Amino acid sequence: MRSNAGRFLSFMLALAAVAFGAHAARADQQQEAPPPAAASTSAPTDVNIHFKNGTTYSGNATVAYPKTGRVNPGNAASTVQFVNGKPPKKTYSLILNGPGKITFSDGSTLSGDFVNGVVEGQGEFVKPGSFEFKGDFSDGQPTSGTVTFVNGPTYEGSFADGLPSGAGTLTASGPVTEATGQWSKGLLVSGYEVFADGARFDGTFGSDGKPEGSGTYRYADGTTLSGTWQDGLFAGPVVERYRNGTVLTVNVSPPDSSLHGAALVAFRDGDRASGRLTQSGELDGPGSYSFLHGPRILGTFHNGQLRGPATLITPSGRQYRGRIEQGVFISPHYKQYFGDGRTYQGPVDAQGRANGRGVYRFIDGETLSGTWVHGRMSGEVVDHFPGGTTYRVHVNPPAEVLHGPATITFPNGDQASALLSDGTLNGSGKYLYAATGNRIDGTFDHGRLQGPATLTTPDGDRYEGKMVDGTVQ
Questions:
Q1: By the number of CB atoms within 10 A of the CB, which of 170, 383, 433, 455 ranks highest?
Q2: Could you tell me the domains of the chain?
Q3: pLDDT class for 315, splitting at 50, 70, 90?
């Protein structure tokens, strides 16, 4: 990624004209009529001066009377008109002092309060069709103010030698909509840039306006990219943080415009993957995957996925050789690890699918035990949850999801029995209360008893009633 602040060359050249114009005004009048040091002066008077090069001045000027030498402002270099009176009869010279306006031969104008030939304090420089500057001058040079370009950017801040220097802000409608910070010779050297797509870069910049040194990009989607830049290129460790908590660290060497090199991916759940990141943004080649509370797998990444021969190393250091197929580590001697945090311990078929009695364990503590036939559950399967609830389901025919007659045992000992479908009990069934021994026979609808029901006590007494959302009415 590269900054666009360095593209405003025309901006810098145009601002230089402000300084040039001020010096030109002083040069013209001094070539024309340099007052001797011992000259006496009169009060300011209104004059119109037409210089030979086409430049004009209208405003206040001071008439100086030299004691020695001959000075004639009405020579071939210029003509002078005294607005509020006639010119002196004796030899004199003119010094621009007081409110006035210079109009240059190209149509540019410089106006403000002149002191000894240059603008001091508030002033304005306008270059028609190009830009306009309003602000403070010192010795004819802009020191602070605002320059606005026609159909272009606006800069507000400090100046030196006619160029942005010091604190300032550039606003524009291009790829960079704002550049704020410290400027030097017309370029942003430190601060931040805001881009049209909502991204922002905070850092330092080189002499060509490109990021140089440390900095951070903040994207509109919340992703951040922090590291070191060299001539606008990534150089050394770069850290990219995503909103989902994943952190990517890449050591870019030599400097490059894209993130690639030795990389470490730290996932939100604590798992880590390491290898070489390609320019396409995927791990490729030799690498490893480490589970937060489990083993580490050494293998080969292909387009971001571990595949083929691999070695699994347990936390205790034991090693098992196997292979990875479709994200599953398959070994005849060890349980399988899945990328979503599941593990499976039990026999598998030639394609690595569960085949026989085995146990799945999930990252939240849930366990699923039973018999599988080529990856499908078959017969009685027990699903036990961390809170103590247990599902016993008879799956027939074999299926990939739990479906069939089921009994749910709750932590307090209560039991509900019916057909499990879509994850809830449905159809005719019963509910047994462990504390009282009472039993309710009725119809389940999405896990709750609804409609006519019969309550039977341990003594055999029967009561007819109605259930609404699992409650006796």
A1: 170
A2: 1-141 (no CATH), 301-472 (2.20.110.10)
A3: confident
